[in-house]
């Protein structure tokens, strides 16, 4: 009996020592932060800092040039115009670029001019911990733990007055609240785990997040389902730490609202019994957020709406970063199916072209582009396919001004800002029948269609052919409807209004 008392006493002493050491370390971080803030103000040339507040944006890939980055920069530009006392700080992992280089790319890619005087970058050196290749197994868990390490690095370098995650790393909320003791918020583009993912594993459906080796095995499927249940439980717990949550579409809102209200009685009981239940007591949010607010991503429609709607070239255009979930392979296969069914589209008089424009973030993306070129070569369509990597904003506009069709094949695309750009430019969209493009964007306007949906290479080919065979009057009417809807619903002004209505200032 005495040995058990000794062991228990030792454990208590060790735990107490660890808690005291952690508290001391946290206090040291907060003390050093005073010097960090003074250095920031000095670097920006601010002598009078009375009333100045710092809003920190956690966006490790801020230089990627995608739709998520447009949201970030539009929000910051809005703050610079309307909140002169706010300094925007971006926690970025783009250590290979300078502040001036990033701002120049923002201007070139999005035509957004930002003021350097109220903008600062805190560069993080552990971004590799949130990349797929660092976690070949248990990727979601690994990336989430990696994001917590990255947030720890961020808070050690500068503590803001309000923290906003704009990439979907909800597990960082715990670290920020532990160190900084400030409110946190989020603009979520895509849930880390969703009800769909749980259902696919439960039904043993093969997917890019559920390999054939797992879906074909009952034991592995049950093991993965338990892993997903545990992850969903703590993802929900993390999201509820936020004081406000904005999302980019009704599809994302549905999944985030489900997650915010997710409960698992068995895991609730286990959580209370395990040490983690005690450790997470300080993170309990007194008034957890119950629902997310939709703030549709902004689309700069001003330049796009100047393009003529008539006399478009026979170009099928894709605008998407070269990431796996964008499913460029499906685009190539759909184009191949179209040419197989309609060989006349390869003749000189009716020849069509598929142009894929997208950002390449790293070596993995570059390798992906080469693999796509190899697939196009195998399908014998390479002479009618063009790849444009990391195009400038003017070059992208040029293609939008002359393309006839916009192609998007991503399944469960959370929003689809590229689809909005298609429509505003007068390009008829053909998208996958899921996610934001199905529920929010390519929807009837005044009872008439604004584009097409499909689900397979064959149905995509049929939809592409349907656009190519529209009469001139039908084609012009659809382009006009698509543009009118996009401009009315997805403007920068609408985004800014919803961003302000989220109540973020109440937590500053």
From TrEMBL:
<dbReference type="GO" id="GO:0006487">
    <property type="term" value="P:protein N-linked glycosylation"/>
</dbReference>
<dbReference type="InterPro" id="IPR038013">
    <property type="entry name" value="ALG11"/>
</dbReference>
<dbReference type="Pfam" id="PF00534">
    <property type="entry name" value="Glycos_transf_1"/>
</dbReference>
<keyword id="KW-0812">Transmembrane</keyword>
<comment type="similarity">
    <text>Belongs to the glycosyltransferase group 1 family. Glycosyltransferase 4 subfamily.</text>
</comment>
<keyword id="KW-1133">Transmembrane helix</keyword>
<dbReference type="InterPro" id="IPR001296">
    <property type="entry name" value="Glyco_trans_1"/>
</dbReference>
<comment type="function">
    <text>GDP-Man:Man(3)GlcNAc(2)-PP-Dol alpha-1,2-mannosyltransferase that operates in the biosynthetic pathway of dolichol-linked oligosaccharides, the glycan precursors employed in protein asparagine (N)-glycosylation. The assembly of dolichol-linked oligosaccharides begins on the cytosolic side of the endoplasmic reticulum membrane and finishes in its lumen. The sequential addition of sugars to dolichol pyrophosphate produces dolichol-linked oligosaccharides containing fourteen sugars, including two GlcNAcs, nine mannoses and three glucoses.</text>
</comment>
<comment type="pathway">
    <text>Protein modification; protein glycosylation.</text>
</comment>
<keyword id="KW-0256">Endoplasmic reticulum</keyword>
<dbReference type="Pfam" id="PF15924">
    <property type="entry name" value="ALG11_N"/>
</dbReference>
<keyword id="KW-0808">Transferase</keyword>
<dbReference type="InterPro" id="IPR031814">
    <property type="entry name" value="ALG11_N"/>
</dbReference>
<keyword id="KW-0472">Membrane</keyword>
<dbReference type="GO" id="GO:0005789">
    <property type="term" value="C:endoplasmic reticulum membrane"/>
</dbReference>
<dbReference type="GO" id="GO:0004377">
    <property type="term" value="F:GDP-Man:Man(3)GlcNAc(2)-PP-Dol alpha-1,2-mannosyltransferase activity"/>
</dbReference>
<protein>
    <recommendedName>
        <fullName>GDP-Man:Man(3)GlcNAc(2)-PP-Dol alpha-1,2-mannosyltransferase</fullName>
        <ecNumber>2.4.1.131</ecNumber>
    </recommendedName>
</protein>
<feature type="domain" description="Glycosyl transferase family 1">
    <location>
        <begin position="309"/>
        <end position="483"/>
    </location>
</feature>
<feature type="domain" description="ALG11 mannosyltransferase N-terminal">
    <location>
        <begin position="52"/>
        <end position="257"/>
    </location>
</feature>
<keyword id="KW-0328">Glycosyltransferase</keyword>
């Amino acid at each position: 009996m005495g040995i058990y008392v000794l062991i228990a006493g030792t454990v208590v002493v060790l735990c107490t020592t660890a808690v005291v050491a952690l508290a001391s370390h946290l206090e040291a971080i907060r003390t050093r932060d005073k010097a960090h803030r003074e250095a920031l103000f000095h670097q920006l040339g601010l002598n009078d800092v009375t009333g100045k507040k710092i809003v920190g944006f956690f966006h490790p890939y801020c230089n990627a040039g995608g739709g998520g980055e447009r949201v970030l920069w539009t929000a910051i530009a809005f703050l610079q115009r309307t909140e002169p006392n706010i300094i925007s700080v971006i926690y970025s992992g783009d250590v290979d670029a300078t502040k001036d280089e990033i701002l120049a790319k923002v201007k070139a890619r999005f035509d957004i001019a930002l003021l350097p005087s109220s903008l600062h970058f805190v560069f993080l050196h552990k971004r590799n911990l949130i990349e797929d290749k660092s976690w070949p197994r248990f990727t979601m868990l690994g990336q989430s733990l990696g994001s917590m390490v990255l947030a720890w690095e961020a808070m050690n370098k500068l503590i803001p007055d309000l923290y906003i995650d704009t990439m979907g790393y909800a597990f960082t909320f715990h670290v920020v609240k532990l160190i900084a003791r400030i409110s946190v918020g989020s603009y979520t583009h895509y849930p880390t785990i969703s009800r769909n993912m749980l259902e696919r594993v439960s039904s043993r459906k093969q997917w890019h997040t559920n390999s054939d080796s797992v879906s074909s095995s009952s034991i592995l499927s049950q093991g993965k389902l338990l892993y997903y249940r545990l992850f969903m439980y703590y993802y929900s717990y993390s999201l509820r730490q936020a004081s406000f949550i904005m999302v980019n579409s009704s599809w994302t809102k549905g999944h985030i609202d489900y997650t915010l209200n997710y409960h698992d009685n068995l895991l609730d009981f286990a959580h209370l019994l395990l040490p983690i239940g005690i450790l997470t007591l300080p993170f309990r949010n007194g008034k957890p957020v119950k629902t997310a607010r939709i703030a549709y991503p902004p689309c700069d429609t001003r330049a796009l709406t100047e393009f003529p709607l008539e006399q478009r070239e026979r170009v099928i255009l894709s605008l998407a970063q070269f990431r796996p979930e964008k499913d460029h392979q499906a685009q190539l296969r759909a184009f191949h199916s179209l040419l197989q069914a309609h060989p006349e589209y390869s003749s000189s008089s009716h020849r069509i072209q598929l142009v894929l424009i997208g950002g390449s973030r790293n070596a993995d993306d570059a390798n992906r582009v080469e693999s796509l070129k190899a697939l196009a070569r195998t399908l014998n369509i390479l002479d009618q396919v063009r790849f444009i990597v990391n195009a400038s904003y003017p070059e992208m506009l040029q293609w939008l001004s002359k393309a006839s069709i916009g192609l998007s094949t991503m399944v469960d695309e959370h929003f689809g800002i590229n689809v909005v750009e298609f429509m505003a430019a007068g390009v008829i969209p053909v998208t996958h029948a899921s996610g934001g493009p199905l529920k929010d964007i390519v929807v009837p306007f005044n009872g008439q269609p604004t584009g097409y949906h499909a689900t397979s290479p064959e149905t995509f080919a049929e939809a592409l052919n349907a656009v190519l065979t529209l009469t001139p009057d039908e084609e012009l009417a659809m382009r006009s409807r698509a543009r009118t809807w996009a401009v009315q619903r997805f403007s920068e002004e609408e985004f800014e209004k919803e961003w302000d209505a989220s109540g973020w200032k109440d937590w500053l």
